[in-house]
Amino acid sequence: MILQIYLIFEGHFLSSSKFFFMQYSQNFxxxxxxxxxxxxxxxxxxxxxxxxxxxxxxxxxxxxxRDRFGITQLYFSEDLSKDINTKLAREFVIKVQGEVxxxxxxxxxxxxxxIEILVKxxxxxSKSKTPPFTIEDETDGGDELRMKYRYxxxxxxxxxxxxxxxxxxxxxxxxxxxxxxxxxxxxxFLIKSTPEGARDFIVPSRMNAGxxxxxxQSPQIFKQLLMVSGFDKYYQIVKCFRDEDLRADRQPExxxxxxxxxxxxxxxxxxxxxxxxxxxxxxxxNIELPTPFPRLSYEEAxxxxxxxxxxxxxxxxxxxxxxxxxxxxxxYKGIDKTSGANFKVLDDSEFIAGIIVPNAAxxxxxxxxxxxxxxxxxxxxxxGMIYVKYQEDGTVRSSIDKFYSEEQLKVWLEMGNAKPGDMxxxxxxxxxxxxxxxxxxxxxxxxxxxxxxxxVFAPLWVLDFPLLEYTEEDVDGGGAGRWIAxxxxxxxxxxxxxxxxxxxxxxxxxxxxxYDIVLNGHEIGGGSIRIHNKEVxxxxxxxxxxxxxxxxxxxxxxxxxxxxxxxxxxxxxxGFDRLCALMGGEExxxxxxxxxxxxxxxxxxxxxxxxxxxxxxxxxxxxxNKDKIQNQEK
Amino acid sequence: MILQIYLIFEGHFLSSSKFFFMQYSQNFxxxxxxxxxxxxxxxxxxxxxxxxxxxxxxxxxxxxxRDRFGITQLYFSEDLSKDINTKLAREFVIKVQGEVxxxxxxxxxxxxxxIEILVKxxxxxSKSKTPPFTIEDETDGGDELRMKYRYxxxxxxxxxxxxxxxxxxxxxxxxxxxxxxxxxxxxxFLIKSTPEGARDFIVPSRMNAGxxxxxxQSPQIFKQLLMVSGFDKYYQIVKCFRDEDLRADRQPExxxxxxxxxxxxxxxxxxxxxxxxxxxxxxxxNIELPTPFPRLSYEEAxxxxxxxxxxxxxxxxxxxxxxxxxxxxxxYKGIDKTSGANFKVLDDSEFIAGIIVPNAAxxxxxxxxxxxxxxxxxxxxxxGMIYVKYQEDGTVRSSIDKFYSEEQLKVWLEMGNAKPGDMxxxxxxxxxxxxxxxxxxxxxxxxxxxxxxxxVFAPLWVLDFPLLEYTEEDVDGGGAGRWIAxxxxxxxxxxxxxxxxxxxxxxxxxxxxxYDIVLNGHEIGGGSIRIHNKEVxxxxxxxxxxxxxxxxxxxxxxxxxxxxxxxxxxxxxxGFDRLCALMGGEExxxxxxxxxxxxxxxxxxxxxxxxxxxxxxxxxxxxxNKDKIQNQEK
Lengths: 634, 634
Hints:
2 copies of one chain form a homodimer. Chain A is an alpha+beta fold. Chain A folds into 4 domains: about 25-130, CATH 2.40.50.140; about 150-295 and about 520-530 and about 565-605, BirA Bifunctional Protein, domain 2 (2-Layer Sandwich), CATH 3.30.930.10; about 315-450, GAD-like domain (Gyrase A, domain 2); about 465-510 and about 535-565, no CATH class. Chain A is about 30% helix and about 25% strand. In chain A, strand 1 (about 45-55) and strand 2 form a beta hairpin. In chain A, helix 7 packs across helix 9 (about 265-285) and helix 7 crosses helix 17. Chains A and B meet through helix 1, helix 2, strand 1, helix 6 and helix 7 of A and helix 1, helix 2, strand 1, helix 6 and helix 7 of B. Strand 24 (about 620-625) of chain A pairs antiparallel with strand 24 (about 620-625) of chain B, so a sheet runs across the interface.
């Protein structure tokens, strides 16, 4: 019994395919290109793979044969080498029969580097044109070319490793959740379009011509219905769709790890899913992440890092010198460490904060000017930047030492625990703008200082998000801004704030049972405990300015379902593409997706989207309105 | 080490959630409703769940509390029972605190039947209206109502078991394939529309207005590209889409287990995937299916069962009395056991075959008439049916004993190994029509005789499908029928038939490296070894009447990819919905899908598809052509 289990277990984690070869016919290969070792010398073997490189050396020829498991060197004798240039070239697929021999010139960088194959015979299984770029770790192909020939780009080892890592993260996610009793339940892709949230992709129906399905932006409503049905714990690794104007590194279709649980509290969800992240890092990267993960409230995150997804691989927390009473937190008393010096710039600022840059007192004027220029660029929009250098000799030099004494400046430095040799950089202005700019400055300087090592992983929870946010956007055409749900309209307010749903002056202070999980400055997941009480839900809709009619129209079937016994429930969704990219040590998701779209939403390999026949449109009772196509790039 | 493995292994197969409760806060529950036993007596526990049933008994009350793990009986004392009718009703979600006590009146049909909970306190977590149908194994709800309230129907145990079974089949499929080194690689959903095959669902693009994506009918082309990329072994459990007029038990979106392998032969694929089915039945149903599975060529299947997906749980193979030379197989010599009797009906028939129905010699005239009527119905379209009874006393009685002697008829009976007491039923006419009708008769009689036990499983392979089939349909508008690919245009012909691609008179005899896996009369999967040779592919396109230009237009990027070194490869895809339904002992897939569509492609719970705002259409540069909407039902 135990032995059998052991074998099954091993099977899960075999990276090469030893099990595979036990079962398969050996006409094409007895081994893969990554598995032969010095112990295999004298074995008669068959290998198949791609020709990576051909090197003539006098009369003989060396060929590197590649598959996804590795590279094995082939040795072609003088006899076989004679016409080899007319028979073989890069990226040909060949099969060789031969014998494993010891290499005289060993390659310690290659797992198979101690051996080579003395080729007895070979066949070309298929030929290749010269590829448009080199199939090497570092390629000479440009982005556009690589996207067009994605199937060739995917032959390169870094991309293969990304896709294989993604496969592992997927499998281990399932292992972990399955172990905890989660059920993988598929939810539909052809659903109903709703006006809330981001823009839906819609799908015209032929059988119900003139009507449309929508592709899901997430399975949110279905997973809540599954809780109503009593499935208790649900998960899915599932494609979602959002028709947004694509910013860099967004995809119109993306993948979520989507989860929902019944009869749980926020604490249960945090424990379960930091356990998931811990499990994934252990199994996939052999990294032990200590738990519990650090936790910050939304307010703390904003106050310390100006950002609800702080990168905490490094410190440089904000030192706030001036902030208005109230701030984000009603209990916050306000602060002012700058007034009284008659320095108008700061006196006129609502908010002043800085960061302590370690060992930066030695920065030149020019360096500082570069950063000043950077914060003044339109994206940051600051009026300027103040520096306070805590010099190695203990003295202080600052761009504003005309206004503030050394003692005053030292108070500021000490508020940030600066040491001699450090420098404080200060920004001032409106609270939100300063926070945003200072957060960007903190990140950018950390990049420059090499403090954002992609192989260091610092996860944390950000908790207690505001339930509501005010948008100036005229969402419903009623002519004014309004309060909208920050997460979604089913997110529950903190128990002690439920009463405030009736008092607009308190809307901005209502905290939600909502949480994000953040890794290295990126939100990798987020969720909430949902409302399961009909009265609270109605209160919430009222707060959002939805009449009973409107809420019925938009969420009718979910509200109906909520009439029939809803368990307390909550959930979370992870951005799977982002999680994989970060685990792979990269910021961009594109190379962790086998067939991504470009920033115009196009698949340049497929040439999609494309025009369709009028017949096809007729069946759907559709017609293209050419007037509405405005100078779009094709 | 071994111990740890054991725990992980156990985790996979825990049906109740013991692991779960070790980790979670116990505010809502310390146990689920299926786990308490006599050993737990005296324990203080917390349970949460749905009220299944309330029974007053004198002053006290019994409540059955339900969750997906089971049912536990609650005992409310007289005190707590007083106002219980005003506080509790069916489908309310409640939480109870209490103590496990031994039941005086044990219920041996319930795993928790030895105990009950002496309730100390309870809270209503949420209320329920009276559900529109009973939440019981056998419900009083009609189809339409149950679809509308799908979230309530999903509370019923038979449906919960289906969905949980599906989850297990999914997980164990992954376990098996992962073990063999298959990689789960996601392929895109927003792809390019192609005119070949069934109708695509299309998705209008906003960023490229006037153009459309298509939803994939299968990831066929992507999995072949992944082989070109060298990923070696790919799998995915993936949604696919087909805009067909829905017959009963078809869904516009359905799920496939999709697989592709490089450097393999057909035999490898058959071994690997009968291994998968064996693994699934062992893990999910604890049934040992012996391997190798039986194999039939397409020709044998058609000759023995008139059907390329025969149900072999029972015999009743065809006895062919007359068939033209050639038949489906060029080596087949033809047969004639009926001529010379001057019986015009049979003399004029191209094809005559029958089945031996066991123990049916005693059927009454009326019974036989009923079946005769049945084969004459338009779906079968037969002119009549002949019976030959092999009576218990060894004599023969037949509807045609005017034309054939007892000796002649006995020859026929013996060809089918009939025993006294059996009866032969014969149909005659055109080959394909008789095969179809006789196959239907065989299945229907087997149903009647109880020979199709849903808990008996008889898988088999059907091999050597024809490569091509002739369609009278004017597919390309050229005014005539043509040869099309039976599987798809990338399926390889048998090596020895490649030459025949140049000789139209031989097209019908070309066999493909294509295979189906059949279970209990349903095709559950199919696939082929693909063409990886450019010249053969071009030959194939020529055979299909595609010019180089047309094939380039339709399959351009795949043909491009095939220029750069293609490994020999092949694959298979399983109909996941069907597989789950059959494993669950049912013929209909609908109740193995959490949220299915009805036969009009509508989700009656969501009310999808639906109309969308003109704004939304404007952004897509679309307008509805009302003239084309013809009296469609809404």
